[in-house]
Specification:
Blueprint lengths: L3 E8 L5 H7 L4 E3 L2 E18 L3 E3 L30 H6 L24 E3 L3 E18 L4 E5 L3 E3 L3 E7 L3 E7 L2 E16 L2 E4 L2 E5 L4 E16 L5 E11 L3 E6 L10
Parallel strand pairs: 8-16
Antiparallel strand pairs: 1-3, 2-3, 3-6, 4-5, 7-9, 9-13, 10-11, 11-12, 11-14, 14-15, 14-16
């Protein structure tokens, strides 16, 4: 049996939207999670011997020999057959007889040759078998934290400062037992304060009327990843996360009592 040769090749697949659609619906962005997918293919090459073909060669045609001429009996010089008794003797003296036919010449059957088997050389055809396995790793984007200043009760007419904290997050994962990374980078923030919309990681607002107001931020993260031994791939997806709600209590300024004396 011939030896089997194994060749190993690795294909790590990009997690961009088109590539993920070809692999699995679980790859890429799903809610607050990003899943990194990769595949590894191994090619097994073997030598397979094709059985030799046996063919029959056409035998050579033998030339058919001419039948030998019938032998005639030569009479003795001094002796002449007066009363021939056999057809051969009658024909030997060149005397035809109505009741005696001419003897037939003995035919020789030509010798037939046996077909020769010809064996073709065996062919060696390489065979390939490709096996593909997949692995994946996931990480969840961080939840942004919304805060405001100065805190406590806010007097009408005063300025309230709102800020959303969304630091970069780097997640260490493994693909085929090798280190890989998924990174979440905050790129933009949108605030909904009462019925108004504000843009930016830090915004401010003045409340003219007393009451309770809610502020909520939404942060958009850019997803990057790095496969083992490869460069960073930027912008593989986007994830939007909501912050915790912030409630601001706005009150009227306290009344001052003036003493008139």
């Amino acid at each position: 049996m011939l030896p089997i040769v194994f060749l190993l090749s690795i294909f790590l697949t990009s997690c961009s939207a088109p590539a993920l659609a070809q692999q699995s619906s679980n790859c890429g962005v799903a809610g607050a999670s990003f899943t990194l997918c990769a595949s590894k293919s191994s090619t097994q090459k073997s030598q397979e011997v094709t059985p030799a073909k046996t063919t029959l060669t056409k035998p050579k045609t033998l030339t058919k020999p001419n039948p030998p001429a019938a032998k005639t009996t030569t009479p003795a010089k001094a002796k002449k057959v007066v009363n021939p008794t056999s057809c051969q003797e009658i024909w030997n003296i060149k005397a035809a007889s109505a009741g005696c036919s001419k003897p037939k010449a003995v035919k020789q059957t030509p010798k037939q040759s046996t077909p020769v088997k010809a064996v073709a050389a065996a062919k060696v055809a390489p065979q390939e078998a490709v096996t593909t396995i997949e692995d994946h790793a996931s990480s969840v984007a961080p939840s942004p934290l919304a805060i405001w200043f100065p805190g406590g009760d806010l007097i009408t007419g005063d300025v309230a400062q709102f800020e959303v904290l969304a630091p970069e997050q780097l997640a260490s994962v493994e693909i085929f037992d090798e280190p890989a990374s998924i990174r979440f980078v905050a790129t933009s923030a949108t605030w909904q304060i009462d019925s108004e919309t504000f843009f930016g990681f830090r915004v401010s607002r003045v409340f003219s009327n007393a009451g309770n107001y809610q502020a909520l931020a939404q942060v958009t993260y850019r997803v990057d990843y790095q496969l083992p031994g490869e460069q960073w791939v930027l912008g593989a997806g986007e994830i939007t996360m909501e912050s915790n709600p912030v409630v601001v209590r706005v009150i009227e300024p306290p009344r001052r009592t003036l003493l008139v004396g």
